């Protein structure tokens, strides 16, 4: 396998009310809204990107939020849990913080030596906070809602739920260059490189579970990192040569993307690390204004009249705070 991803790039999910989505991820989880744009394939809805200060690959959870979206069904053929990385001694603080914010949490567990706290967002999306024993060197977004010593560092991992693991495991190892790391009952762990936060995927085998239905409260797709466009293009040809149905390369303005499904049903993406989110607005103003790609600029007036207004806390943009 000549191509190996260095880890997760982003996870994209379906949300409900956009303002509720913003309030939860900015105020409750303490992330930064690094880009306010639209779904390029369906521009009548937002595409909201949450991450660290600059939206570096590996820190991003993004949403297509529809105010009246029906609820999805979590099941096989999906990424069913998105986990964030937090400092080792922060799980207790987070449990108190989430419960004080009206969020129901699960019991603190331990998996592969890591403390894990599970909960759901307002639309039912399954989330987790994971404390890696060796820590996470990534810097958090500095804001007043979550103290820096407890703040989210970025994505930790995703869990894919499948009815059987063999074909999915083959795609992860041969298609993405991940390595098998551990097995715990019906859970199989694969990692990019040496693993750790931002470079881990768990495959959960649940043959008795229903098939998932992608709608509000579920993950739409999981994106993995490619360093540049040349690598991505060559990677695409490699996947095609293996019989994988892959899309053309798509311009997502802040990265380039290709999409394909792993055999278990989850939609995967390979996204480039560049050009990043500061190509069309300054770092201090990320997420503040609606940004559109050039081909949608002629429709700006109509889109701004259609999309619901969003209220952002001033802390999202330090120049305003």
Automatic annotation (TrEMBL):
Hey, what's the signal peptide range on this chain?
Answer: none
Is Iron a UniProt keyword of this protein? no
Checking CDD domains in the record gives:
PcpA_C_like (cd08347), PcpA_N_like (cd08346)
Please identify the protein, giving its name as recorded.
Answer: Lactoylglutathione lyase-like lyase
* SUPFAM superfamilies for the chain: Glyoxalase/Bleomycin resistance protein/Dihydroxybiphenyl dioxygenase
Q: What Pfam families does its record include? A: Glyoxalase
Q: Which PROSITE patterns match?
A: VOC
What is the scientific name of the source organism? Saccharomonospora marina XMU15
Q: Which InterPro entries match?
A: Extradiol_RC_dioxygenase, Glyas_Bleomycin-R_OHBP_Dase, Glyas_Fos-R_dOase_dom, VOC_core
Using the record's annotation, list all stretches that form the VOC domain: 7-132, 154-273
